[in-house]
User: Which sequence fits this backbone?
DNA sequence: CATATGATGGACT
DNA sequence: GTCCATCATATGG
């Protein structure tokens, strides 16, 4: 039992808060004998049906998954890429945080983009609807020797319709953040 | 089944 | 900034 692993309480808050707090945390991916570790450097928050950019407005499986309990992994495909999200807040609240970029710590792959990072650490639909808390080969932990960093926020990327809010968060001056 | 649509990424201006 | 290949999904019949 690692005390370092993020608990359910961490995800039991609103998506905006969780998106910010996830920055600097360590994502661990076990692939056979290899353990790939990376730092989360960029995220986006998505809300319920009042969010014009959110898939929660749809009526299908995406919305259903966002309503599930905090810490549920949500994977969905767009433009030939897998995008990975973590469901946040209380069950029945459609909220999620999208992982947009990682800083590889002990491997060398381009993780600067939501589609690229899933390719790099081999996340696919197999993880969809699973809980992040009981995966043997994927988890998130605190980074106890993390340096202080500044958080920057912008509007979300690639949306047809976005909210007039800044819901994309990233670590300032980190070169692994996607786009400019 | 058919068709539309991107929470993309890479190439290019 | 713009263009567009490409395909997993959503949705309608």
Assistant:
């Amino acid at each position: 039992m690692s005390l370092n692993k993020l608990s359910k309480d961490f995800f039991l808050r609103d998506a905006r808060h969780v998106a910010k707090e996830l920055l600097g945390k360590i994502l661990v991916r076990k692939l056979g004998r290899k353990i790939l570790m990376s730092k989360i450097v960029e995220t986006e928050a998505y809300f319920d049906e009042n969010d014009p950019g959110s898939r929660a407005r749809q009526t299908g499986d995406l919305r259903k998954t966002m309503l599930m309990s905090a810490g549920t992994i949500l994977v969905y495909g767009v433009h030939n890429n897998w995008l990975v999200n973590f469901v946040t807040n209380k069950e029945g609240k459609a909220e999620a945080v999208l992982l947009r970029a990682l800083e590889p710590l002990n491997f060398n792959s381009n993780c600067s983009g939501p589609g690229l990072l899933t390719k790099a650490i081999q996340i696919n639909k197999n993880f969809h609807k699973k809980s992040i808390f009981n995966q043997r080969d994927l988890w998130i932990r605190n980074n106890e020797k993390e340096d202080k960093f500044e958080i920057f926020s912008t509007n979300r990327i690639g949306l047809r319709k976005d909210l007039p809010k800044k819901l994309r968060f990233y670590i300032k001056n980190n070169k692994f953040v996607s786009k400019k």
